[in-house]
Design goal:
313 residues, 2 domains, Cyclophilin, single chain, alpha+beta
Length: 313
């Protein structure tokens, strides 16, 4: 069986697929790729199903040996990848020969890069998913980030695959955004008009302590919190909650499934992949859109991802 040998794990590298939906009532968040669009593209490049498991690298990539060789693709941010010391193309399919080492450095653009291999990374599924839920130590490879010396199995692949690359047009259309589009949150009317104007006019920096559970934002402008107490309720991916202190937190892929802080807004589904590429100290702003616009933007994104002609060169 073909394998991937971890020579260097990088800063924080985990096995991720598209997550485990439907278990929120049990207190289990979806987890999965922080930038699901990039994982889907990487898998399509190597001929996998979109939801096949790959490796998610954060800020600093690792080094991986392919003892039997493999067909691979890198998607997401530019980590300056090299194959046996020679530049490896991003967002394109390429072959690794037996014994070659694919090495990544520090990010040059966003936060995360995805390594997809034909056949997918094969691990034991937890609740039907290969994704790593780090906070609970479940799923993925032993429920943790990868370490030097780990050996990952590559799954079997059927049929023929061909080399191709992401089109320049598709890359431009799906470029991560720093102006995040949002719809009103379930408690948006709890916030006075002055606080809402401040929220949409404000500029926020991504805090160092942000992680896969929540993206913490910092600003000189403090929103404040509405008066009154709130009973905990179910929360959604991308919810922008405002805890005591008035600095927003965007709930992310390993979010808690319930929360007792008011939500002023919710990032739209079409911009979820942009959240996955935010780095500490990146600046973001918020732009309000209506429900119809949010649905249209997601439909347009899915139409692009579903079109071979538009997606690939």
């Amino acid at each position: 069986m073909a394998v991937i040998r971890v020579m260097e794990p990088g800063l924080f590298t985990t096995v991720q697929d598209l997550g485990r939906e439907g278990f929120g009532a049990m207190g289990v968040s979806p987890s999965g790729a922080a930038d699901a669009v990039s994982l889907r593209i990487g898998n399509r490049l190597v001929g996998n199903a979109e939801g096949a498991a790959g490796l998610e690298m954060t800020l600093l990539g690792g080094a991986f040996e392919f003892p039997e060789g493999a067909m691979v693709a890198l998607a997401g941010s530019d980590f300056g990848a090299t194959l046996d010391g020679k530049p490896a193309e991003l967002r394109a399919t390429f072959e690794t020969k037996p014994g070659q080492v694919l090495k990544m450095g520090s990010t040059r653009t966003g936060a995360r890069c995805y390594l997809c291999v034909r056949g997918g990374v094969e691990v034991e599924l937890f609740l039907g998913s290969a994704s790593t839920h780090v906070l609970s130590g479940l799923g993925g490879f032993e429920g943790r980030a990868l370490r030097k010396g780990d050996v990952l199995k590559i799954g079997a692949a059927g049929g023929a695959a061909r080399q191709r690359r992401l089109s320049a047009r598709a890359l431009k259309e799906m470029e991560p955004r720093r102006v995040l589009r949002v719809t009103p949150g379930p408690q948006s009317d709890w916030f006075p008009e002055a606080a809402q104007r401040l929220f949409y006019a404000g500029r926020y920096l991504v805090a160092e302590e942000s992680n896969r559970m929540g993206i913490r934002l910092r600003s000189e402008a403090v929103l404040g919190t509405p008066g009154g107490k709130m009973i905990s309720e179910g929360v959604s991916l991308g919810a922008v909650q405002v805890p005591e202190g008035g600095q927003p937190i965007i709930l992310f892929v390993e979010q808690q499934t319930t929360g007792g802080y008011p939500k002023i807004a919710n990032v739209i589904s079409a911009d979820f992949h942009s959240l996955g590429q935010l780095r500490p100290r990146d600046e973001v702003r918020f732009e309000r859109v209506d429900w119809e616009a949010a649905r249209n933007l997601l439909r347009e994104q899915e139409e692009l991802l579903g079109s071979e002609e538009r997606l690939f060169e």
